[in-house]
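Journal club prep, notes for RB
We'll compare a predicted complex against what the paper describes. Inputs for the pyridoxal-5'-phosphate case:
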Amino acid sequence: MLDLTNIRNEFPMLKKNNLVYFDNAATTFKPYKVINAVMDYYENCSVNVHRGDYDLSFQVSNQFDQAREAVAKYLNATSKEIVFTSGASSSLNLVAYGYGQKYLKEGDVILSTEAEHASNILPWFKVSEVTKAKIEYIPLNEEGILSIENFKKAMHDKVKVVTLAQVSNVLGHKVPMKEICKIAHSYGAVVVVDGAQSVPHLKMDVQDLDIDFLAFSAHKMCGPTGVGVLYGKYDLLQATDPFLLGGGSNARFDICGNILLKNAPYKFEAGTPAIEGVLGLKAAVEYLMDIGMEHIEEYEKELNQYFVEKLRPLEHVVIYNPSGTCGIVTFNVKGIFAQDVASYLSSKGFAIRAGNHCAKILIDVIQASETLRASVYFYNTKEEIDAFIQALSEITLEKCIAVVI
Ligand SMILES: Cc1ncc(COP(=O)(O)O)c(C=O)c1O
């Protein structure tokens, strides 16, 4: 059971604004603990890491290294398997170019789904173009759910990379990742997981799931923007090429152009990192672990069910993912353009997202070019959902037009 009063007091955005925020799949609010960690860096120890021979630099470098350990603990990984990046998009690009482009060749297959976010499919389009490896899609059912049966049917000997989101950012369905990894590995394929919408919400154990690569962003889990993580099994990271080179990532180089790279994770972290971001991410994972990811997961499931239960009786609403469990509810109001509904709701103090949510291939699967997405996090309440449902039940085309014009 979460102590919601306490939790809500820890988020300045929840105290100051008269706003019901249901756009957590886009980004989340930050608690004081994270804000203070970022400010502390700028106010008290604003020096570079791993470069200076003075106490303050050692001190900040130490905190930076502890951040890697904290993230490793959050995932049940080891710290040498944690690469800091600028976010999920950057992590996914790193795997595609550093691993996919290096090892895939004509005749190989990259297996994915039609529900992927642009950040987990566009880099693979590029890999396919360069290597001539083919992209195939695992069929989803009419609710956009990926079943193990369909995955088994889609797997074959030529599949070398399976790349998919653990939780879809449009429909919020969770894929059976442990079984997927087991089956993919039995064919010798590597599994790349887009964890942008799962790592902030679920208790993660990369060893138990046996994931090969996992990408996610700090800002979707109470952390700062501009920082993210690529987890990779150490041998795979060692086998992956960096796609950025520069200071901090090499052990030696000479005038003939010979470069000796450092070992993972350092070979991927060329240049000065987002130090305040990494320290903020450390504060965020510690904050989430203090609450307990199993409590967060359970509460969000409860909120999701409550949301759907309240939405279902509204006859003018179509729900696309009534069986979702991960805090994302996707719907439309019959006869009103999604963007106009979102603008109307904004005028009533509710923030939700309208559009295709960067998953442009999914449009054909769910037969809707634009949808509304309400996404909750553990600081949202049932009272906020009640207020939202009330506003939605009063919506009419005329009211929307009045707001939009
Ligand atoms: C499923 C999924 N993958 C990747 C991303 C990209 O994350 P970022 O913009 O933080 O790089 C997002 C962002 O919305 C997402 O929802």
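Talking point for the session: The longest helix spans residues 55-75.
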